[in-house]
Amino acid sequence: MHIDSLLPEFVLDRVLREDSSYKSITLLGKIKDQYCIIVAEKTAFDTNALSAISQPEAINLDLENNIYHRAFVALKSDAFKLPSAKYSIIYPATEVHIAKYTAQKKRMIAETPELYTNVVQPYIQTMLGSRIDWVFNILKHEAEVDRILFEDTDPVQGFILLPDLKWDGKTLSALYMCAIVHRRDLQSLRDLRGEHIGFLQHLKEESQAAVKAKYGLEASQLRLYIHYQPSYYHLHIHVQSSDAEAGEGLAAGKAWLLDDDIALYIG
Amino acid sequence: MHIDSLLPEFVLDRVLREDSSYKSITLLGKIKDQYCIIVAEKTAFDTNALSAISQPEAINLDLENNIYHRAFVALKSDAFKLPSAKYSIIYPATEVHIAKYTAQKKRMIAETPELYTNVVQPYIQTMLGSRIDWVFNILKHEAEVDRILFEDTDPVQGFILLPDLKWDGKTLSALYMCAIVHRRDLQSLRDLRGEHIGFLQHLKEESQAAVKAKYGLEASQLRLYIHYQPSYYHLHIHVQSSDAEAGEGLAAGKAWLLDDDIALYIG
Predict the structure, then answer these.
(1) Does this model's pTM top 0.80?
(2) B29 lies within 8 A of chain A by CB
(3) Cβ atoms within 10 Å, residue B117
(4) Using CA atoms, how far apart are residues B35 and A106, in angstroms rounded to an integer?
(5) What is the DSSP letter of B246?
(6) Which long-range contacts (CB under 8 A, 24 or more apart) does B10-18 make?
(7) Is B213 exposed, middle or buried (0-12, 13-18, 19+ CB in 10 A)?
(8) Mutation for B interface: A7, A204, A226, most B CBs within 10 A
């Protein structure tokens, strides 16, 4: 029996997560006594069907002030041609799935040297080794070879620049590359010292030049930054179009501009 | 004649802006030879109508892999009870409106001392005076008095803490306050010096305490930051829930963590 015919039997348990900016919501419920997670997200407006916007099915004008008007509308919707939402449905779902899709609270932590030594560094040690084999596979040309945009093979100054998986490879305004360094002694931003300034400058300039050559974007159209904490502990730099939409990955406290990192060590 | 009855006569000229993450699109068109701008944004899921999610009007299952399913759906829609979109309509619109609503390209600029002296500082001078009377109205208790959460009236150390207009005043996970300083010699982040460390620490601690007392959020649940460039040139600090959704205003290159600013001047 297909999930679509089971969906009407969904009995809501609770909302796991919601995001009013991105217009998404994640529901936990049960179908036939087994957990089901629905991740629902409204669709973007279809630029191939723009007339649907000015021809809504119904309009409720709720505010008028001179030339400014606000209205709520019902849009035409069709699961095949003009879907109003995209669902990801996990069924049957386990407790692990439920934990993964449950909203997490965020805390801001000022990381002192003591905190780094006593808590973060031991944690980083558990994240090395075979957990990041996929990074070494890229560096050793055992995976994603055809995706490499630029490589400097020098063991100290070298790095590989390749598209981030989140990028569609086409939309220039969302261009997103990743520079993964060849050297293995730098796990994160915390390992950078004054001696690495030349290395970072080199990586920055070569990356900017490679993106310019292939995609035509100027240096000033790119935002280069480092995540701390990163999702994996092998130094890598994010190279993204300055027009890219700002989200969690770009937030102050998570993303650190490469230029600032360099300026701090120089200054 | 009301805008809602004119809307069907809308003839599309071009798309001014679109945002696939936020599910919004801005169209320029004409109605009876006058420009009309439609800013359309899909609505967030209504948490009062959750059953509508599991009971869509139609479902198109397009992917099945073990427990994972993806589907496109047509949701029930009603301009009054379950609107699918919110429209802001500007009609008749002028060239100024069109420029305002047209997507702008962003550039990353490393601001040198020369650039600051020769370009930014002269610009800042044009942004002072009566342009920021609304800020002085707040500081002089001539406006928004009933919105003040905390005030230290000292002319040097003092500031006013009040809710940002973007906050609904209720949703704690989106809490957003603004601390506006009483002193008038600090226009932006660029004016901060080592001598201001105590002032910033004081502002930080008093703001955290005031938010804790009124809303129960701990210091670690708040993100304090300064915009550069800011939208107005009188020093103000953003105090936001660390759970708030990250957007343009939080992006690295625009938002500077207060703790980092303090650490830089100390270090």
Answers:
(1) no
(2) yes
(3) 10
(4) 44
(5) P
(6) B10/A54, B10/B36, B10/B38, B12/A50, B12/A51, B12/A54, B15/A47, B15/A50, B16/B98, B16/B101, B16/B102, B16/B103, B17/B101, B17/B102, B17/B103, B18/A44, B18/A45, B18/A47, B18/B103
(7) exposed
(8) A7
Residues A164/A180, Cβ–Cβ less than 8 Å:
no
Nearest to A38 by CA among A77, A83, A105, A93: A93
Q: Give residue limits of the domains in chain A.
A: 3-85, 107-266
Cβ–Cβ under 8 Å, residues B25 and A53: yes
Are B240 and B221 in contact by the 8 Å Cβ rule? The answer is no
B9: its two tokens: 């006569």
| B4·A43 Cβ contact <8 A | no
Task: For chain B, say whether A111 makes contact (Cβ under 8 Å).
Answer: no
Contact yes or no for B111/B124 (Cβ under 8 A): no
Residues of chain A found within 8 Å of residue B38, distances taken between Cβ atoms:
53-54
Q: Is A201 helix (H, G, I), strand (E, B) or coil?
A: helix
Give the distance from CA A195 to its chain's centroid. Answer: 30
Residue of B73, B107, B220 with shortest CB distance to A108: B220
How many whole angstroms separate alpha carbon A70 and alpha carbon A55?
Answer: 16
**pLDDT (tens digit, 0 to 9) for every residue of chain B, 267 residues total?**
688 899 999 999 999 998 888 899 999 999 999 999 999 999 999 989 999 999 999 999 988 888 889 899 999 999 999 999 999 999 999 998 999 899 888 899 989 999 999 999 999 999 898 888 889 999 999 988 999 999 999 999 999 999 997 787 888 888 999 999 999 999 999 999 999 999 999 999 999 999 999 999 999 999 999 999 998 999 999 999 998 888 889 999 999 999 888 877 654
Note whether A77 contacts B: Cβ–Cβ < 8 A: yes
Cβ atoms A43, A84 nearer than 8 A: yes
Yes or no: domain B3-85 corresponds to CATH 3.80.10.10:
no
User: What SS3 class is residue A175?
Assistant: coil
Which of B145, B177, B140, B134 has the alpha carbon at shortest distance from B155?
Answer: B140
Q: Which CATH number is associated with domain B107-266? A: 3.30.428.10
Q: Could you give the ipTM of this predicted complex?
A: 0.73
Q: Are B106 and B62 in contact (CB under 8 A)?
A: no
Q: How far is residue A112's CA from residue A227's CA, in Å, rounded to a whole number?
A: 17
Contact A7 B59 (CB under 8 A): yes
To the nearest whole angstrom, how far is the Cα of A129 from the nearest Cα of chain B? 30
Q: CB distance from A3 to chain B under 8 Å?
A: yes
**Exposure letters B232-259 (e unless 16+ CB within 10 A, then b):** bbbbbbbbbbbbbebbebbbbbbbbbbb
